[in-house]
Amino acid sequence: MTTQYTPEQMHSALFLNLVISLQAAAYQQMGKMKNPATDKVEKDMDQAQMSIDMIAMLKAKTQGNLSKEEGEFISQVLRELQMNYVAESNKEQSAQSKSDAGKSEQNDSKQDAQS
What is the pLDDT of residues 63-108, one digit of tens each? Predict the structure, then answer.
């Protein structure tokens, strides 16, 4: 026996699956999940930002047309992704600062040795 879904139920399920797909892509692009195609953790923060921006666009374009649950779900996904994006960006900036500081110390040491 197959279950019959109303068009509204089907649209809701498809909408939620779309948001979940974009969420998974963003986490993968932030390096928080393996890329299933390569089985490697890969990081592309520009692409992660694009995926997050697409979810934000969906939220804006569907405002007033979502059920309470759909609206709460997309808002929660967006908040979590934005917080993770900021945390990952801060990690990258911190690592870059440490790397730059190390290079600066090496250059200072070389200049002292040459003097």
Answer: 999 999 999 999 999 999 999 999 999 988 887 777 776 666 666 6
Which residues are registered as beta bridge partners of 30?
43
Token duo for residue 53:
């921006």
Do residues 89 and 45 make contact, with C-beta atoms less than 8 angstroms apart? yes
- Does this model's pTM top 0.85? My answer is no
Tokens encoding 47: 């692409």
**Domains of the chain, each with CATH number or no CATH:** 7-114 (1.20.58)
Cβ-Cβ contacts under 8 Å for 55 (sequence gap 6 or more): 19, 22, 23, 26, 74, 77, 78, 81
Of 52, 30, 25, residue with least CA distance to 41? 30
Q: How many residues does the chain have?
A: 115
Three-state DSSP class for residue 30: strand
Contact present, 27 and 33 (Cβ < 8 Å): yes
